[in-house]
Amino acid sequence: xxxxxxxxxxxxxxxxxxxxxxxxxxxxxxxxxxxxxxxxxxxxxxxxxxxxxxxxxxxxxxxxxxxxxxxxxxxxxxxxxxxxxxxxxxxxxxxxxxxxxxxxxxxxxxxxxxxxxxxxxxxxxxxxxxxxxxxxxxxxxxxxxxxxxxxxxxxxxxxxxxxxxxxxxxxxxxxxxxxxxxxxxxxxxxxxxxxxxxxxxxxxxxxxxxxxxxxxxxxxxxxxxxxxxxxxxxxxxxxxxxxxxxxxxxxxxxxxxxxxxxxxxxxxxxxxxxxxxxxxxxxxx
Length: 285
Fold this sequence. Notes:
Layout (H helix, E strand, L loop, with lengths): L5 H8 L3 H15 L4 E4 L2 E4 L1 H12 L4 H12 L6 E5 L1 H4 L2 H12 L5 E5 L2 H9 L5 E4 L8 E15 L20 E5 L4 H11 L6 E6 L2 H9 L4 E5 H9 L3 E4 L5 E9 L6 H14 L6
Parallel strand pairs: 3-4, 3-5, 7-8, 7-9
Antiparallel strand pairs: 1-2, 5-11, 6-9, 6-10, 6-11
Helix pairs in contact: 1-2, 6-11
């Protein structure tokens, strides 16, 4: 349910793929419920599996959270929209978008959660969040893609870095420089590894991180230069860091998702529209 594929589940559990399949069959027989089905060559969760997973998730909700919800209801506050977003989006463009929407709709209430993409998908698939913002996902049978798009990557450096004199940074400019990159499990990390593999003198990736804002923080502290999405680059610029266009074809892709088969509420439609308008700011140089 969390990883999206049997092979990924096997990797996370450190067991073989046949062992995972056997565990699934044993559970289905014990519960007398069909939990997974094959569609288009992929194993996907059934409606029964999602309902069961929801109950499992609920069993971990403590009394404190229930009391908090009751207090919110008594006070007349209850979220009309629950949003999940990956950090690169949650810490940059989305807060401003939410603020604009709230200013237009005084009755607007929301819960705003930041998490990495797989948990975003899970929260949306389980209908614990009505809308999610993250990188593209392969969970096409659990969630629906509302909108997708991309923004440029940007070069970032600490204040005063010599490459700040250049109008545009090219890969050759990074040769032999200390570089703060992304771990190999991320789409950005794999993209930059492929890019640098073509260079005779690639940058030296001494530091790697999973999150773009950590890459920015390390760059600001002189650990090297970096390349991040335009969302994070804007925050890097606001802190006094160097930001320049980078001459690469790769772009940072994002997608907006909703629970499979559900209709978007009016608040969700407005949020998506505001977000798409907000993203235009990050497309230029």
